[in-house]
Design brief:
Helix content: 25-40%
Radius of gyration: 20 Å
CATH class of the largest domain: Alpha Beta
Number of helices: 16
CATH architecture of the largest domain: 3-Layer(aba) Sandwich
CATH topology of the largest domain: Alkaline Phosphatase, subunit A
Shape: globular
Strand order of the largest sheet: 2-17-8-1-7-5-6
Structural class: alpha/beta
């Protein structure tokens, strides 16, 4: 969608069919799936009123932030930009990497995501490209990997971000802006998306975006979307897979709903999948190469190929997947999760205002 915004600002046809505007704001509400918005419509009537069959789309697989913001920021599928999941194995340095917050001096963002960003493309075309987000995201390795080239406009509160977006949308010149709201995702993980506090945050974001919409002049437009949805679970739906993964496990990564299994000996992958068959009610296992061949990650380049696991486990229903040697306590404590292929995780809003 960010790539379509750039094309629209440049007066060119685009994949999303956006109208030509001078300034386009693309708001990403992390963790707000279409199903969550439908169920909580009374808390965000402005957004919910725009939701319908033609304004719902799907995020990329896996349904997780690191992959989908990567796709948003580059216009590429995860297999192309290389940020293939939440936690992956860095085989070169023999260590696990959390692609949102676990970067270190050995994980150069320009190596992990070497492709030109939409921000870089826009600046080269003479378009101002802005990131409107909390100060904590300025210059992080993930931001460098995905938004390098953009002008960072810090605003920590939801209200302040809306104020900055209003100012940018009505400025002279051509611009595209990425307006990021992480609050719903963070709160949902901790307390669940059906909680009163989550609904209160949705109200605040929804009313703020309505205020932004009402402030837009004829040369500005607004898109509201997300990177994934969420699904809630309970303690008795948590599966600890230690006993099933005794096949020379190197690393257990990915997400709680889409687990990545790295083995010391890849030839053991089929035996591992056979051993997991009794858990078919709760998960489905695949050889990662089979999903690659089926196009789940798009075209897979050398960066993604080097990080791909041997086996991928997708949780069914509202089960979540863990390994006691690799999963952290906060993963066990989470109420809402994402990563797998359920409609609650994959279906996201794609709302247009003034476009």
């Amino acid at each position: 969608m960010f790539s379509s915004a750039l094309e629209a600002v440049l007066g060119r046809p685009n994949k999303s069919g956006l109208a030509v505007k001078d300034n386009i704001i693309v708001a990403v509400i992390d963790g707000l799936g279409a199903e969550q918005l439908q169920h909580r419509a009374g808390h965000a009537p402005f957004l919910a009123s725009a939701l319908g069959p033609k304004t719902i789309t799907y995020c990329a697989y896996p349904a997780t932030t690191s992959s989908n913001i990567g796709s948003f920021a580059t216009g590429l599928m995860p297999g192309e930009h290389g940020l293939i999941g939440h936690q992956v194995w860095d085989k070169q340095h023999d260590e696990r990497i959390n692609l949102l917050v676990g970067w270190n001096e050995r994980t150069d963002p320009l190596v992990w995501q070497p492709h030109q960003t939409i921000a870089e493309l826009g600046v080269a075309e003479g378009v101002a490209v802005n990131v409107i987000a909390a100060e904590e995201y300025r210059s992080t390795p993930y931001s460098v990997a995905t938004m390098r080239g953009a002008n960072f406009l810090p605003a920590d509160s939801i209200r302040d971000r809306i104020d900055v977006a209003i100012s940018v949308a009505n400025a002279k010149g051509k611009s595209i802006s990425y307006l990021y709201f992480p609050e719903l995702d963070k709160y949902g993980h901790k307390y669940g998306w059906t909680s009163p506090g989550w609904a209160a945050l949705l109200e605040e974001v929804g009313s703020g975006l309505q205020r932004l919409r009402s402030s837009l002049g004829p040369k500005a437009g607004l898109v509201v979307t997300s990177d994934h949805g969420m699904i809630e679970t309970q303690k008795d739906r948590q599966l600890v897979l230690d006993d099933y993964l005794d096949f020379g496990l190197e690393f257990f990564g990915g997400d709680t709903r889409s687990s990545y299994i790295y083995l010391r000996d890849a030839s053991a992958a089929r035996d591992l999948l056979e051993g997991l068959e009794p858990l078919g009610y709760a998960l489905k296992g695949y050889l990662a190469n089979d999903l690659v061949d089926a196009g789940w990650f798009g075209d897979v380049g050398k960066e993604a190929a080097a990080r791909m696991p041997d086996v991928i486990l997708q949780a069914r229903s509202n089960f979540t997947l863990y390994h006691s040697g690799f999963s952290k306590q906060r993963a066990f404590d989470m109420i809402s999760h994402h990563g797998s292929i359920s409609p609650a995780e994959m279906r996201i809003p794609l709302l247009r205002f003034g476009l």
